[in-house]
């Protein structure tokens, strides 16, 4: 972890292209929602597949609507996220997957947080991060007073990824 965090400009939508870790509706084990080749749609509406390595469940999503992308469920199958933990007075800290969890951890752990300058204009106030995930985080996550508790919650979630 670094003392300094520079917002990479990652968007909520960008995280949806990664593997989304969810609770399997059949066995409650660790399952994943992944991009599926072929079919209608692209980007946010590209076909997805739900896969559970524990019980073998497989389902396809070819929809034209998604659920909320700012809640502790995947927006395609609307299943609870695997990476979710109670934190800071009953609030829920959650992440779609490893990259999201890493981003949260790096942001919260950093004592200095920077927004990037727009490319080609280093003297103006930053606006490139205005639509980034970091810019839309709730105030309780941004608050330094919650740093230790949030980092403990991140460690708990990370431990579930390494469990057998």
Keywords for this entry:
164 residues; alpha+beta; four-stranded antiparallel beta sheet; two-stranded parallel ribbon
List the uncertain runs. 119-130
Trace the largest sheet across and list its strands: 2-3-4-5
Summarize the main sheet. 4 strands, antiparallel
CA distance, first residue to last residue: 26 Å
Which percent range describes the beta-strand content?
15-25%
Number of helices: 4
Structural class: alpha+beta
Question: Mind telling me the C-alpha Rg?
Answer: 17 Å
In total, the number of strands is 8
N-to-C order of helices and strands: EHEEEEEEHEHH
Tertiary shape: globular
Mean pLDDT: 86
Share of helical residues: 10-25%
Describe the structure.
There is one protein chain. With 164 residues, the protein is α+β, with helices and mostly antiparallel strands. The protein contains four helices and eight strands, in the order E-H-E-E-E-E-E-E-H-E-H-H. A four-stranded antiparallel β-sheet has the order 2-3-4-5, with no helix packed on it. It has a two-stranded parallel ribbon with strand order 1-8. Strand 4 and strand 5 form a beta hairpin. Helix 2 runs antiparallel to helix 4. The two termini are 26 Å apart.
């Amino acid at each position: 972890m670094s003392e300094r965090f520079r917002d990479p400009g990652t968007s909520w939508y960008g995280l949806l292209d990664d593997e989304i870790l969810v609770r399997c509706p059949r066995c409650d084990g660790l399952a994943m929602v992944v991009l599926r080749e072929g079919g209608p749609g692209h980007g946010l509406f590209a076909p997805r597949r739900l896969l559970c390595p524990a019980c073998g469940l497989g389902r396809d999503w070819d929809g034209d609507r998604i659920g909320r992308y700012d809640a502790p469920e995947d927006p395609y199958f609307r299943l609870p996220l695997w990476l979710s933990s109670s934190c800071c007075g009953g609030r829920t800290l959650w992440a779609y997957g490893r990259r999201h969890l890493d981003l949260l951890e790096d942001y919260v752990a950093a004592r200095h947080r920077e927004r990037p300058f727009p490319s080609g204009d280093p003297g103006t106030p930053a606006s490139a991060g205005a639509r980034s995930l970091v810019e839309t985080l709730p105030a309780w996550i941004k608050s330094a007073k919650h740093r230790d508790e949030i980092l403990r919650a991140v460690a708990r979630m990370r431990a579930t990824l390494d469990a057998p």
